[in-house]
Amino acid sequence: MINLLRINSILSTPQISEEFTGVVTFDLASLQLDAPPHCILPSNIRLGHLAERVVSEAIKSSVNYETLHENVQIKDNNQTIGELDFIIRNLQNQSIVHVEIAYKFYLLDPSLPAENMNQWIGPNRRDSLAEKLYKLKTKQFPLLHHSLTKQALKPLHSGDITQALCLLACLYVPLGYVYELTPELNKAVRGYYVNKQAFTQRHQVDYHYYIPTKKEWGMNPTQHTTWYDYDHIKNELGTHLSEQRAPLIWQKNGSYFCEYFVIWW
Fold this sequence. Notes:
Layout: H1 2-11, H2 18-21, H3 47-61, E1 65-76, E2 79-90, E3 96-108, E4 120-121, H4 129-140, H5 147-152, E5 161-174, H6 183-186, E6 189-195, H7 196-202, E7 208-210, H8 230-242, E8 248-253, E9 256-263
Parallel strand pairs: 3-5, 5-6, 6-9
Antiparallel strand pairs: 1-2, 2-3, 3-4, 7-8, 8-9
């Protein structure tokens, strides 16, 4: 059951479109599935790779696409210079697409310049949406046309392959911040973020909490069954913050659920 919930949570994550990324979008809704893909998800891989595995199984389960290549490592004298996520074929029109997958969590920092999606940063300020898009445009997508890639993909011709991005995003905004987002970005907002002081001040005696592992990020807290009181989680929360790691918190108050990050910065 947990496996299926994890699969569905990834496939139902809102996508950020070409209007914002500047890259053609591969829409997961274009996959014609008779039923959600079923697969055993490994427990020893990172969240991003977990999302890739789920999308891979969805493509393979679809009736309108087939996978030609997956996780193509491009090497120069045994040194890996890059990797292509997927090369797939549309069975209806025979077009071939190089698809890159990203499953990301970003917080809106209004203090940063607004241009080029620069305000959307990782929970620990170590990455940003702007940096991710720059890497995709300058490294990942150009890799398709590298001479070594052409050798790896034979008999396919890179000039016949289009490129697209599947960017699955969960967005969070400052608590109480009055913001104006487009409807597309707004639908990707899952919650908010606070510092430790605000978290402590907002606590009420009937609140219960859970700190999901990173592999649980993006799942629906309403489907979770184990909850703890404040005293139970405060030490774990303190450890995260002292190590400059912003944890995601699921909060339950009766039948009301919400999720937010508690930041250290």
